[in-house]
Write a structure and sequence with these properties.
The structure holds 3 protein chains of 3 kinds.
Chain A (H helix, E strand, L loop, with lengths): L2 H20 L2 H26 L8 H17 L4 H23 L4 H21 L1 H4 L5 E2 L10 H23 L2 H11 L1 H6 L4 H27 L1 E2 L6 H14 L6 H19 L3 H15 L3 H12 L12
Antiparallel strand pairs in A: 1-2
Helix pairs in contact in A: 1-7, 2-7, 2-10, 2-11, 2-12, 3-4, 3-5, 3-10, 4-5, 4-10, 7-10, 11-12, 11-13, 11-14
Chain B lengths: L1 E10 L2 E11 L4 E6 L5 H8 L7 E6 L2 E2 L5 H7 L1 E3 L12 H12 L15 H10 L15 H13 L5 E5 L7 H18 L2 E5 L3 H7 L2 E6 L2 E6 L1 H6 L1 H8 L4
Chain C lengths: L2 H32 L6 H18 L4 H22 L8 H23 L15 E4 L2 E4 H23 L1 H11 L1 H6 L4 H23 L9 H16 L4 H21 L4 H15 L13
Antiparallel strand pairs in C: 1-2
Helix pairs in contact in C: 1-5, 1-6, 1-8, 1-9, 1-10, 2-3, 2-4, 2-8, 2-9, 3-8, 5-6, 9-10, 9-11
Classes of the chains: A mainly alpha, B alpha/beta, C mainly alpha.
């Protein structure tokens, strides 16, 4: 790991670790949410930024992770540790199936199919009342007594997110990620250099779904509930917006996007009900003028003003 | 080494390649010439698996490769460059070749090791061979056309192919650059003992380096043999060479 | 259930199909000629309906005038969007998708601002209100109007495509965009026109649909996805294909809700998934090329 980024990561970790010390209950809750949202957005970016696969249905795997954990743990009494891992594994399993069907399609069709699948998963969550609790979901999910106090849940979330982000960081800087970039840039040529493009797309789709599943489980641990609303189309777009606003060509972009959007959201909600207008406008402006997002501004600026020696800066 | 037998391909009723048969011997330099639209790139696409032939068979080193995927064919030893630039434009020159090397060495599924220096030596060697060492950190899309063509070649070489298919490697280059490019190519393949099948329009180049020329016209082979034979063939002269000689 | 019930449903399905056709055609034009996936198409439809509500129910104007005004306004909105904003995103289909989606959000909230969240309604125009009866069969007169209007619009569009120069250019562009550009034709102007026509059709669809549906937020999403399914299934660049796909889709929607009420909302997504998995480019043979 590059030294600069290692320091940055540690600094972040310390910052988040101090929140329970200096913050109110609300702040702790908010930051816990922020943490697994960062995890979720970063997992999506493996698909969007690194591989060029615009999935609008990623929230489906988040939800499967959440529901699977809940159903196993609360309804069937499966031990916490097992449920905790089984949730994301089931999400990954679903990702294999959905991914297999989706990667056969190009660009727009791929996006549509991912959207369709997320909605189908929503429909299942909504209708399969005996199992999923229908439109009211499942509430009152008490985790093991260790996690009852909010602080403990917070630290658990921080720990899990830190570990998973580290793993994703390694993946994002591995030879595998270079192959993904090649697929994004020129899938045709990638095939000519021995890359089975579909297979790799399926692999990253599954990995991405796996991490999203963890984010879903953390959601349940924090809110002690799960319900179909998390699968609304607006949730799907929220996370895509985080990736784009923060910058899809940088590992930390989605994190920045999550921070910006979550803070913006609570700020806007305090004054007006027209959040969609704000989000839509922000998204439109970013897409038009800063398609590389916030983290893309600095390389762009430095390239324009030649502050930094010219070097390929994508996926730093 | 390469055997194409009665291969045909049509698109929406248009017969692009019709009953084409040809052979390329190991170690030789063969040129595929023909007017625009004669089917040369289509034939290349059929050989490398980018297109599925409607009929016919293709053999490489006596092994049937007819309907294989491009990613399998390249591993069997056939490398290829493209007529229209087909590089990874937002990656650096180094990364363009490195990714091909990584794929060749089957380390593409490596998830946890850092990628910056992986196979750096092999990549540098190739960059050196094609004369791009100095530009290794440039974003490939920002290079001049000539350099991008050299990069095309570099990427194709990463798999250490025994048969190299080059599609118009000198297209768009000035006369001087063309000479340099061809010299580079010939040096590279002589050093590695690679068999070459090249699509070319520049007749001077074709006749100066080829051991074997195949002429395609409207999807059919109308000439096949040593340069002098082909040059004298009346049908070839009529439909293609015309006044260019 | 006797056959008159099913026949009534069939007529309703035909009417539904015509609405889908009007919408899908606009979408198909934009996608085929420009290679842009216009998520905001549903928003155009919704704006058309709300505008009609405003003009007819709130201002008490003539229904027919309202239809024309609404459609033309949408054409104007479409023109502005394309001319000043969308055209900057040429060549990047994923960003276009996100961009048009951003406008879905923007339009949705703008409508909420202007009209609130309660559903609105528009009365049938006097001429066409009431029930049409033949023997035991009864259905709203408005259905007949729509069912006859659909083919007329289809015919007009076909004439536009075949008889006018612009129409032929549009068809050529949908088959080979680069070629049209290379021929020195001002594709910019063609695109702006196409987007405008597409928006016009969407607005027209919304305006025409306004008496038959509950005008509320969310009608954009409810209509844009079936429209896309029709576009995909009918194949691009083919009015006939879109027409028949729309008719089929209309019936599927009506009877689908009848036989599988529990699946109602997700039905269209399941359908979309099936179409995409089985045959991504619908009835025609060629997959479309994106900008």
């Amino acid at each position: 790991m590059k030294n600069k980024e290692l320091l940055f990561g540690i600094g972040l970790f310390i910052f988040f670790a101090l929140i329970p010390v200096i913050g109110s209950k609300y702040t702790i809750y908010f930051n816990a949410q922020l943490l697994f949202t960062i995890l979720f957005a970063t997992s999506l970016n493996l698909l969007v930024g690194y591989t060029g696969l615009f999935s609008f249905g990623h929230v489906g795997f988040y939800a499967i992770g959440a529901y699977a954990f809940t159903i196993l743990y609360k309804t069937y009494g499966v031990p916490f540790g097992v449920s905790f891992v089984a949730g994301p594994l089931l999400a990954a399993g679903a990702a294999v199936i959905v991914g297999y069907l989706c990667v056969r399609l190009t660009k727009i069709y791929f996006t549509f199919l991912t959207l369709a699948f997320a909605q189908i998963i929503w429909a299942i969550a909504f209708k399969w009342t005996p199992v999923t609790g229908g439109d009211s979901g499942i509430v009152g999910i008490t985790p093991s007594s260790l996690l009852l106090p909010l602080n403990n849940t917070y630290f658990f979330t921080l720990g899990v997110v830190a570990v998973l982000m580290y793993v994703m960081y390694r993946i994002a800087h591995s030879p595998f990620s270079l192959v993904l970039n090649a697929i994004r840039e020129n899938p045709n040529r990638a095939e000519s250099i021995g890359v089975n493009v579909r297979l790799y797309q399926l692999i990253v789709f599954t990995i991405s779904g796996f991490f999203a599943g963890f984010a879903g489980v953390l959601f349940v641990l924090l809110t002690r509930s799960v319900f179909p609303d998390i699968l609304l189309v607006t949730r799907s777009i929220d996370v895509v917006a985080m990736v784009i606003v923060g910058g899809m060509y940088n590992f930390w972009g989605p994190m920045i996007g999550a921070v910006v959007l979550l803070y913006l959201n609570s700020f806007v909600k305090a004054y007006t009900e027209y959040w969609l207008l704000v989000l839509g406008t922000l998204l439109a402006v970013v897409v038009l003028f800063f398609p590389s997002g916030i983290t893309g501004i600095f390389p762009w600026l430095s390239a324009r003003f030649k502050l930094v020696a010219k070097k390929g800066e994508l996926n730093a | 080494m390469l055997r194409v037998e009665k291969v045909s391909k049509s698109f929406d009723g248009f017969l692009a390649v019709s009953q084409v048969s040809m052979r390329v011997k190991e170690g030789e330099i063969a040129s595929l010439i023909g007017t625009n639209g004669a089917g040369k790139t289509t034939l290349f696409n059929l050989i490398t698996g980018h297109l599925r032939s409607d009929e016919g068979e293709i053999y490489f080193k006596d092994r049937r490769i007819t309907h294989l995927h491009p990613y399998d064919i390249v591993r069997l030893g056939i490398g290829r460059s493209f007529q229209r630039l087909n590089i990874f434009s937002r990656l650096t020159v180094f990364e363009n070749v490195q990714i091909a090397v990584i794929s060749y060495k089957k380390k593409a599924l490596s998830f946890l090791r850092p990628r910056e220096r992986l196979f750096e030596d092999d990549t540098e060697r190739i960059l050196d061979d094609v004369g791009l060492s100095a530009l290794r950190n440039e974003v490939s899309g920002s290079l001049s056309f000539g350099y991008q063509k050299q990069l095309e070649l570099g990427i194709a070489l990463a798999f250490e192919p025994e048969l190299l298919l080059l599609d118009e490697p000198t297209a768009g280059l000035s006369a001087a650059d063309t000479r340099d490019a061809m010299e580079l190519i010939v040096n590279v393949i002589k050093a590695r003992g690679t068999t070459l099948l090249v699509v070319e329009h520049d007749m001077h180049v074709v006749f100066s380096i080829s051991d074997h020329i195949i002429v395609l016209h409207q999807g059919r082979v109308i000439g096949d043999g040593m340069p002098e034979q082909v040059r004298k063939d009346p049908e070839v002269q009529k439909s293609y060479l015309g006044e260019s000689l | 259930m006797d056959w008159t019930f099913y026949f009534t449903q069939f007529i309703a399905g035909l009417s539904q199909g015509m609405f889908l056709f009007i919408l899908a055609t606009g979408l198909s034009l934009i996608l085929g000629v420009m290679g842009i996936v216009n998520f905001a198409h549903g928003s155009f439809y919704m704006i058309g309906a709300y505008l009609t509500y405003y003009l007819v129910t709130l201002l008490g104007g003539s229904f027919w005038l309202a239809i024309i005004l609404a459609s033309v306004s949408l054409a104007g909105i479409g023109y502005l969007l394309q001319r000043f904003l969308i055209h900057r995103l040429y060549g990047r289909p994923e960003l276009q998708l996100v961009f048009t989606f951003a406008f879905v959000l923007i339009f949705s909230d703008l409508i909420k601002m202007g009209f609130g969240v309660l559903p609105k309604g528009v009365a049938y125009p006097e001429l066409l209100s009431g029930i049409f009866e033949i023997g035991p069969i009864r259905f709203p007169k408005y259905h007949i109007f729509i069912i006859t209007l659909g083919p007329i619009i289809a015919y007009l569009l076909r004439m536009l495509e075949q008889r006018t120069r612009m129409g032929r250019i549009m068809r050529a562009a949908s088959l080979n965009r680069d070629m049209v550009n290379a021929l020195g034709i001002n594709t910019e102007r063609v695109f702006t026109l196409v987007f405008g026509i597409g928006a016009f059709l969407a607005g027209l669809g919304g305006a025409l649909a306004s008496p038959t549906v509950s005008i509320a937020l969310g009608m954009d999403a409810a209509v844009v996805l079936p429209a896309f399914v029709v576009v995909i299934f009918g194949g691009l660049g083919s009015f006939a294909g879109t027409f028949f796909a729309a008719l089929i889709a209309g019936q599927v929607q009506v009877f689908g809700i009848l036989f599988f009420p529990r699946l109602a909302e997700s039905f269209i997504f399941i359908l979309m998934a099936i179409v995409l998995i089985a045959r991504p480019w619908g009835l025609s043979n060629r997959p479309p090329k994106f900008a």
